[in-house]
Design a protein that fits this description.
There is one protein chain. By secondary structure, the protein is mostly helical. Helix content is 69%, strand content 10%. It contains four helices and two strands, in the order αααββα. Strands 1-2 form a two-stranded antiparallel sheet. α1 runs antiparallel to α4 and α2 crosses α3. The longest helix is centred in the C-terminal third of the chain and has 36 residues. The chain is elongated and about 65 Å long.
C-alpha cells in the first residue's frame, strides 16, 4: 500500500506544495515539516527541494534569500501570479478527477451490491 500511496503523491505533490505556499512564504524545510505533520511521513526532504527548484525554474514562485543564523542564507519561496494560475488549474483538474473517481467507485459499488442480491 505504501508504494501505491507514494506513486499517487508524486502526481500531486507539486500542487500540494504550491497550495502550501498560497497560504504563506516558506523555505524547503518548513514545507517538508508541514507535510510530515499532515501525515505525509514518507516524503524525503530532497524530494521537496528538487520540486522547489523545478517550480522556480518554471517561474511559478518567487525566491528571496534570507539570512540564516546557521550557515548560508535560506531560500524562501512565495507563490507568484503564474503560480496562482497554475494552482487554480491544479484544483480544477483535481476536482474533475476526484469527481470522476467517486462516480466510478459508486457505480462499481452499485453493481457489486446488485450482484449480491
Amino acid at each position: 500500500m505504501a508504494k501505491q500511496m507514494t506513486e499517487m503523491l508524486k502526481g500531486t505533490l507539486e500542487g500540494t506544495v504550491l497550495a502550501i505556499l498560497s497560504r504563506r512564504s516558506a523555505h524547503g524545510y518548513e514545507i517538508t515539516a508541514w507535510l510530515r505533520d499532515q501525515g505525509f511521513t514518507e516524503i524525503a526532504e530532497g524530494t521537496v527541494y528538487a520540486l522547489l527548484v523545478r517550480v522556480e525554474q518554471r517561474g511559478l514562485v518567487d525566491v528571496e534569500k534570507v539570512p540564516s543564523e546557521k550557515g548560508p542564507p535560506r531560500k524562501v519561496y512565495s507563490l507568484n501570479s503564474s503560480g496562482r494560475e497554475y494552482l487554480d488549474e491544479f484544483w480544477r483538474n483535481w476536482s474533475f478527477l476526484s469527481a470522476r473517481l467517486e462516480q466510478l467507485r459508486d457505480q462499481i459499488t452499485a453493481v457489486q451490491t446488485e450482484g449480491e442480491n
